[in-house]
Amino acid sequence: MTRFRRAVPLAVVAALFPLAACGGGGSTPASPGEGLRPTARTAAAGVDDVEGAKASPQCAAQVKTLRMYAVGNLNDVAKSGKAYMEKTHPGLTVEIVATAPNYVALVQQLSADRSAHQQVDVAVAGFDVLPVFADQLGAQELSPRLLRASYDQRMVPLGQVGGRQVGIPQQVSTLTLAYNLDILEKAGVDPKTLTTTDGVIAAADKIKASGQDVQPIDIPTGQQFGQWVLNTLASSKGAPIQDEAGRPRLNSPQALEAARFLAKVGTYGPQSDDPTNQGLLRFGIRKQTAMTMVTVAALAGGLKFIQDQGAQGFRAGAVPFPTLPGGKQAPVAGGNALTVLSTDQCQKEMATELVVSLLAPDVLAASTESLSYLPVDSAELTLLEPFYRQYPQLLPFNDLIPSLVAPPSWGGARGGELPTALSDQVVRIMTGADVDKTLVAAQAEAETLTR
């Protein structure tokens, strides 16, 4: 366990322990102004020994400009590929457009720029908006031969739409439950009991009765986390909120059980909206909450900062987000994939080389050292051995990789609105609305938006 110093400016903590970093339910990362630097060190990119990934000499000579779109806080990752490509292909310019604050805004930007006949070659796509890239933005199919032998094939399905590989997963995260061990111990709570929602409620009741004047639990719902947590809970009993045919499934017994847990959580006190500026402030600085929901991607910077504080503050720990009683870990993934949008053959070849350069193990490792995404490459994992020796608390989350579940990717003309709409329904449930009626309304709304 490590300690979290109390008197630290929020801006500093938000940069080091970003609760929403490249999140999942709606693939909405934290603000790029919060200091997230996914490649804090210089990283070596390249495509050596990758079959079919290098552009032909003819295309390399012909293409003079590549244009890549990313969200603001992935700008440094893109720069690694830019440096490699421009060094390897003298005369080539790689333009990086990284002004969009999140993946939804990036889709809107891409749509507008394509309509204006702007060149678009490579883009970062949140998992849940991949269907838009496949069906509306012209994402090209990518051959598995492009992947290094060390790439973790268990990640590949996260980049598929309708059986087509339209993206290569680059950064993957899941939800976790962070806790203040000092508060838990005073209440007689063993963190090992936090594996199920029943265990969490029992712990919350003990904390409430312990006289410590602290809110037992806080589950932030903003930035589309509401959908993510509801889906993660329902998934643990085998019924994610999107069925195999792509239809909404919010009227299942599993969704109802998940919603009732969230309703109970809401009775312990006001739940945060913004995961960072509210949730983190209450948990990490004001000590107002004993447990809070975070993402795996939030832990690396936080643990580094916490360890630097020595004996001051409180001991902090984290466990995989709990399952419903009788369930098993089937965490819904968050994160993004790299896509190729070029249609010209030579532009496509060069764009593909850029994508593969960004999947170089050293680039991936540099990203994970800054934001603790799950590793997507075994060579990356080898490079991270010193990192995991420094932060062994992160290793258990890597064991979740075999059980990852793809996030929902809602179809329909208005499917992109659904993550926010469902998160709003979760807020209603957590603020006292009738659970059954609200889920009925959520199912109806989901069916309308995905028509």
Automatic annotation (TrEMBL):
It comes from Parafrankia soli. PANTHER family: ARABINOSE-BINDING PROTEIN-RELATED, DIACETYLCHITOBIOSE BINDING PROTEIN DASA. Residues 1-20 form the signal peptide. The keyword Signal applies. InterPro entries: Bact_solute-bd_prot1, SBP. Keywords: Signal. SUPFAM superfamilies: Periplasmic binding protein-like II. The keyword Signal applies. This is ABC transporter substrate-binding protein. It comes from the Bacteria. It holds the Pfam family SBP_bac_1.
